[in-house]
């Protein structure tokens, strides 16, 4: 169900979108919900980065997604436990390619911008509680080889950086079962925003 995609997989150059198209299509996307959304996909990166989409899994503070690449690292950084991407943006960039190609763990129908979810914000995802970490989630060489140079420039553009189009990192603060279709709800925002 990961379609044989692993950490060495590259994208289909015929699916790469030019920067102008990405920008135009981004403006046409429906606004993601700010408060309540849904889980679109849950992905585990097995040995060699082999992607597996999961129907149900229990995530926990000490393991993240059980069996995921994060937990196999020596001394894994809790602030990079779960890579999370907004599902609509991922679908736009992938342009028909499987979303598992990104290498992220969660694809959420939720506004992941810094304005909506500053670091320290907490979100109930299925039965788990996750917290947004301060580590930036940037595009890299692998991202370029999967979605093209224009896609990398699209997510990295300075004036759009706060929208977190490449995604964010989250960590598990309360264990719980999650799966596609489960509700997602913002339960607190970082005090830095003055909101609750």
How does the SSE layout of this entry go?
Elements: H1 19-28, E1 36-45, E2 51-53, E3 57-59, H2 69-72, E4 82-86, H3 87-94, E5 106-109, E6 122-125, E7 128-136, H4 141-147, H5 149-156, E8 168-174, E9 176-178, E10 183-188
Parallel strand pairs: 4-5
Antiparallel strand pairs: 1-2, 1-5, 1-10, 3-9, 4-8, 6-7, 6-10, 7-8
Helix pairs in contact: 4-5
Q: Which tags fit this structure?
A:
196 residues, alpha+beta, two-stranded antiparallel ribbon, 5 helices, 19% helix, 28% strand
Distance between the termini: 38 Å
Number of strands: 10
Low-pLDDT ranges:
none
Number of helices: 5
Helical fraction equals 10-25%
Strand order of the largest sheet: 1-5-4-8-7-6-10
Strand content: 25-35%
N to C succession of SSEs = HEEEHEHEEEHHEEE
Give the overall average pLDDT. 93
Biggest sheet: strands, sense, closure? 7 strands, mixed, barrel
For the CA atoms, what is the radius of gyration?
16 Å
Overall geometry comes to globular
Class inferred from helices and paired strands: alpha+beta
Walkthrough of the structure:
The protein is α+β, with helices and mostly antiparallel strands and 196 residues long. It is 19% helix and 28% strand. The chain has helices at 19-28, 69-72, 87-94, 141-147, 149-156, and strands at residues 36-45, 51-53, 57-59, 82-86, 106-109, 122-125, 128-136, 168-174, 176-178, 183-188. The strands form 2 sheets. Strands 1-5-4-8-7-6-10 form a 7-stranded mixed barrel. A hairpin with a 2-residue loop joins strand 6 and strand 7 (128-136). Helix 4 (141-147) crosses helix 5 (149-156). The longest helix is centred in the first third of the chain and has 10 residues, at 19-28. The protein starts with 18 loop residues before the first helix and ends in an 8-residue tail after the last strand.
């Amino acid at each position: 169900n990961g379609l044989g995609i692993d950490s060495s997989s590259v994208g289909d150059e015929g699916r790469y979108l030019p920067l102008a198209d990405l920008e135009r299509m981004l403006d046409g996307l429906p606004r993601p919900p700010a408060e309540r959304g849904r889980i679109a996909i849950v992905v585990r990166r097995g040995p060699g980065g082999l992607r597996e989409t999961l129907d149900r899994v229990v995530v926990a503070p000490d393991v993240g997604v059980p069996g995921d690449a994060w937990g196999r690292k020596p001394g894994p950084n809790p602030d990079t436990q779960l890579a999370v991407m907004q599902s609509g943006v991922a679908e736009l960039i992938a342009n028909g390619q499987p979303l598992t190609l990104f290498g992220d763990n969660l694809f959420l129908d939720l506004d992941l911008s810094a304005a909506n979810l500053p670091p320290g914000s907490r979100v109930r995802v299925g039965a788990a509680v996750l917290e947004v970490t301060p580590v930036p989630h940037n595009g890299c060489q692998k991202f370029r080889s999967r979605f093209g140079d224009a896609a990398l420039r699209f997510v990295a553009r300075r004036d759009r950086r706060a929208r977190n189009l490449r995604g964010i990192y989250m960590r598990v603060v309360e264990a719980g079962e999650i799966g596609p279709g489960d509700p997602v709800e913002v339960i607190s925002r970082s005090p830095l925003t003055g909101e609750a």
